[in-house]
Amino acid sequence: MPARILCASAELAVEALRAAELIGWKLETEIASDPIGAALSSDGSRTLGIALIGAPTLEQLVELGHRRLPRLALAMLERTHPAARLRDVALDLGITTVTDIGPLLAALRLLDAGAEQPWAASLRTLAEPDRARLRSAQAEGARSGASIVAAEADYYGVAYVASAGSSPIALGGASDAAAAIAALRDTDRTALRIEASVDGVDSQAVLDVLFGPRRALSDPASKSALLPYGIPTPTEELCASASRAAVEAGRIGFPVRISLASPDLRVWDHADLSVDMVDNAARVRDTFRQLMGLAKARLVAKPSAIAAAAIRHPGSDDVIDRVLGVMVTATAESRALLGARAWPLPEERVAMEIAFADAHGTAADDRTLLVMPATTEQIERALERLAGHTLILGNIRSERRAHLEAIADVLHRLCAFVHDQRREVTSVELRPLALLLDGTIEAREACVTVSDAFERMLHAAPNARPA
After folding, report:
1. 163 and 145 in contact (C-beta within 8 Å)?
2. 235-331 architecture in CATH?
3. Domain 3-186 is in which class?
4. 304-316 residue pLDDT tens
5. 235-331 and 3-186 share a CATH fold
6. Tens-digit pLDDT profile for residues 276-306
7. Which of 267, 300, 411, 432 has the fewest C-beta atoms under 10 angstroms from its C-beta?
8. What is the residue extent of each domain of the chain?
9. Within 13 Å, how many C-alpha atoms sit on residue 208's CB side?
């Protein structure tokens, strides 16, 4: 039965047929308005390709990876940074993913032939230019009885030979074959189906914090919801007055960090609403008054839903309920500042976006994306996609392992929270997630966004009552 390629446009179908003709391969093409949807409805008995011009959604990739179709390859022609992140996620989910039609056909031919470890094939008989093109796709130290050779005279490019005496399988140009073999090598076909769970969680305590209308929780409320899951936070105290802030700062130990606590004015959006290294009680009181004054002016002046939502004293302009006070936090020197944002996906999965939270990392848009639950090895692979990953993991083996385990533990706990509360929670953001010099981690600010689940439940309750 010939292989089938689901194409997003007629032009892609024509291109695939022309490329197949060059390597003497018969295949079927089908133009589909939703190629991934059509692939999900297939029975998996045929070698199947998907050719997209743009990028799929993360939800589509999760559903496609969940199907575990054994002979599937995906081409995403879009080469933007977001599309590249989705390609990495697709590989993590067990989907062989390339960026053009030529590599797609080469990958499908190898999958259709049941090629085993083509990245370990010998390149000895190839001409030096083609050997150079394919060398990057090989796995270091891997060897097999297969080989990549020049294609027969009637066909274009290079061919795969499984063993001595086997018929060669034309793959197309050496660059296309290299891209296909590298994608097959990097596809995670052994990913474990692990569960997202944390033992001993008081679910009712979490729901008590979340209960209410759709909204973004303040930093203190968000941390209260996350606390039963054991996500580490620094020593800190919410203070509603200048005198209380000074007392708590003395108890915690100077110097401290003073930051505004408000669901409407996040410190990561307003850098001037946080002051580090406050070293005495007088400065604490002055900083408290300064931050409260800035918050009041900013909320009242802001012509948006935030200002409209602020509750004021009758007959005055004093903002009360949307500014809770300040957080007085123990300071600790950090090695790196990360940001983690998580949200629920289909098939009991959770999306996790990790980025640098410092100014340089934000400007460089240095971020990576993975789907949880994931093994420690998958998390390490995702972190290595960050340009500045050595700042997080380090270069010493023991240090690298300790940092990786600390980060993985926090991500697993965050994943478990989002998974357990996927009905009530839209997203969770931890920023910054500080990796300290001693290798431990602390979530310095958190934001849990509650969905409209409770509102829908309350609206449905009267209809559910018996007459």
Report:
1. yes
2. 2-Layer Sandwich (3.30)
3. alpha beta
4. 544 444 444 444 4
5. no
6. 999 999 999 999 999 999 998 888 776 554 4
7. 300
8. 3-186, 235-331
9. 7
